[in-house]
Amino acid sequence: MTELPLEYTEKFLGAEDNWQKSQNVILGVPLDITTTFRPGTRFGPREIRFLSHSLELYSPFQKRSLERIDFADAGDLMLPAGDLQGSLNRIERMVDVFLSDSHRPFILGGEHLLTWPAVKACLKYHPDLVILVWDAHGDMRKDKDGYSLNHGTVMNLIREAVGGERMYLMGVRSECETGMERARETNIFLQDVLEPMKRVREEIMGKPVYFSLDIDVVDPAFAPGTGAPEPAGITSRELMSALALLEDLNIVGADLVEVAPAYDPSQITALLAARSMRELLLMQG
Ligand SMILES: [Mn+2]
Questions:
Q1: Which of 22, 30, 215, 218 could form a disulfide with 72 if both were Cys (CB 3.0 to 4.6 A apart)?
Q2: Relative orientation angle of helices 268-282 and 236-244, to the nearest 10 degrees
Q3: Are 116 and 150 in contact (CB under 8 A)?
Q4: What is residue 281's predicted lDDT score, i.e. its pLDDT?
Q5: Which residue range(s) make up the domain with 200?
Q6: Separation of 5 CA from ligand 1 center, angstroms?
Q7: pLDDT at res. 2
Q8: Does residue 164 form part of some domain?
Q9: CATH code for the domain in which residue 146 is found
């Protein structure tokens, strides 16, 4: 495992340490290289894990406890500092290692570009993969200052790989004009997440789904700790209601990205992220 070094961290609430024995695996991916505005997502995984310990193991809504969920925390994937392509390759290989042994990855980011190598690995095992994204931004730029690998191009990279018809983008309220033209080739829903999820749920039921939750889909009032906050987002209650609609979907991989603790002095963003991850994990029971 020297090629894919894992760093020991505090574990997520209720997680086992031996990921080889668990079907569901949390992986921290502190990628923080291409952020265009405020950096700092490399500290996201650590902060989300820390805040997870303020939550209950049990959810009165799902009537399930993390104690009875088969999941482990593999720690953080160590990334070669400053080496973007090397980092992306390592993320893809790690997700591949999980999927090749029937583990289901739940990634804590990190910036949104990490979704690209994670999806690439998933496509090897699930060529009919559906991409479900909740994000304030379309991330549909072709490039940023000439560079095609960026957290603002990630959904365009995926669109070019899988085609827009298998992508469902929800909660979008910010994108450049040409990016919006590309976004219209996907199933894009502006502003809202809950109503679109009610409409789309049956359509994607049974299909292998990669779910990507960018915390900035939530209004900055509830989730200020992120690199590129965008006003007029969904509430934390709407996020929980929308997450409940993921029940019984065939999620083969997921990530939760863009938590940047430096702008989160009250830690509510990391706490909301931890709560979201708890709900996702409880659904795997
Ligand atoms: Mn975003």
A1: 22
A2: 10
A3: no
A4: 98
A5: 6-282
A6: 28
A7: 52
A8: yes
A9: 3.40.800.10
Question: What is the predicted pLDDT for the residue at 8?
Answer: 74
Phi-psi region of 207 (alpha: psi -120 to 50; beta: other; left: phi over 0): beta
Give me ligand 1 centre to Cα 116, in Å.
Answer: 14
- The whole-angstrom separation of Cα 150 and Cα 141 is 9
CB-based burial of residue 201 (10 Å sphere; 0-12 exposed, 13-18 middle, 19+ buried)? middle
94 domain-assigned: yes
Spell out, as residue ranges, where the chain has pLDDT lower than 50: 1
Q: What is the CA(64)–ligand 1 centre distance, in A? A: 30
**Which residues, in sequence order, are CB contacts of 189 under 8 Å at separation 6+?**
168, 169, 170, 171, 172, 195, 196
Q: State the total domains in the chain.
A: 1
DSSP codes, 72-131: EEEEEEP--TT-HHHHHHHHHHHHHHHHHTT-EEEEEES-GGGHHHHHHHHHHH-TT-EE
Distances (CA, A) of 280 to 34, 54, 145, 212, 277: 27, 17, 36, 12, 5
Cα of 228 from ligand 1 centre, angstroms: 7
pLDDT of residue 36: 87
Q: Whole-angstrom distance between the N-terminal and C-terminal Cα of the chain? A: 29
Whether residue 1 is contained in a domain is answered as no
Ligand 1 centroid vs 172 CA: distance in angstroms? 8
Whole-prediction pTM value? 0.97
